[in-house]
Amino acid sequence: MKRVLFLCTANSARSILAEAILARKGAGRFQALSAGSKPRGEPNPLALRLLVERGHEVRDLRSKSWDEFAGSGAAAVDLVITVCDNAAGESCPVWPGHPVQAHWGIPDPAGEGHDGALDDFALAYDRLAERIDRLLALDEARLEPREWRDAVAAIGRECEGATGG
């Protein structure tokens, strides 16, 4: 089972949404994780509300530091996906296992230019679900690591162009 870590600065909305979506859709194939460089300490209540409305289990979701997944004592991850532009621009820790890294930019549903409405969270969820569906359509077992990296990165680029973020 491949371990996928979604990163966002606060680890309160986008990365939490992505973790929940992949945990359900990729169960048995992927282990979904999320973290932030400066975690807020708790998931955004609207993110949790949306996940519950869409049938996700939220009991174990929590906002956590990426330090839990970095360093010599941490378990290796196979794929690290940044879902916010701030996290993509930050100096990331050294990840055990030399994971594939990609960026899937998703506008912050609670950030500037958004009023933090449930509709903004639903749009972020839908954009993440589209990307995750495309990830699940890949046959990573048959792809060389470089091909898989390129395919995962292409998902972010292609979906960004098609959805505006």
UniProtKB/TrEMBL annotation:
GO terms for molecular function: protein tyrosine phosphatase activity. It comes from the Bacteria. The gene is arsC_1. This is Protein ArsC. Its EC number is 3.1.3.48. One of its GO terms (biological process) is response to arsenic-containing substance. SUPFAM superfamilies: Phosphotyrosine protein phosphatases I. InterPro entries: Ptyr_pPase, Ptyr_pPase_sf. SMART domains: LMWPc. Residues 2-138 form the Phosphotyrosine protein phosphatase I domain. Keywords: Arsenical resistance, Hydrolase.
